[in-house]
Specification:
This protein has 94 residues and is an alpha+beta fold. The protein is 46% helix and 18% strand.
Length: 94
């Protein structure tokens, strides 16, 4: 679909990685999308929000006093969700 970010762009790869996934750390998103360790995930999350999606961001305290930030798409406009699901179905069928 032409309104989806390209599959070969950082935004497109981030959106497709987070679509249907549960809460993920920025590091997990980087690894699953195949990004270099220096890739700025939070900027792509802001871009996903600009598409009309709602991305939850919350921290989970760790036992050592540190915090881990998790991100999850809570809402995605139906047209985007349907296009991603269709794209996924076509890839599986191929």
């Amino acid at each position: 679909m032409s309104f989806l970010p390209g599959i070969d762009t950082n935004l497109g790869r981030t959106l497709r990685t987070m679509h249907g996934a549960g809460p993920m750390t920025a590091g997990a998103i980087r690894r699953k999308a195949g990004f270099h360790a220096d890739t700025e995930i939070t900027a792509r999350i802001r871009d996903i929000r600009k598409l009309g999606c709602s991305v939850a961001c919350y921290n989970v305290p760790q036992g050592d006093g540190k915090q881990v930030w998790l991100y999850r798409i809570d809402y995605m406009p139906r047209v985007i969700r349907d296009a991603l699901n269709e794209e996924m179905s076509r890839r599986i069928a191929a």
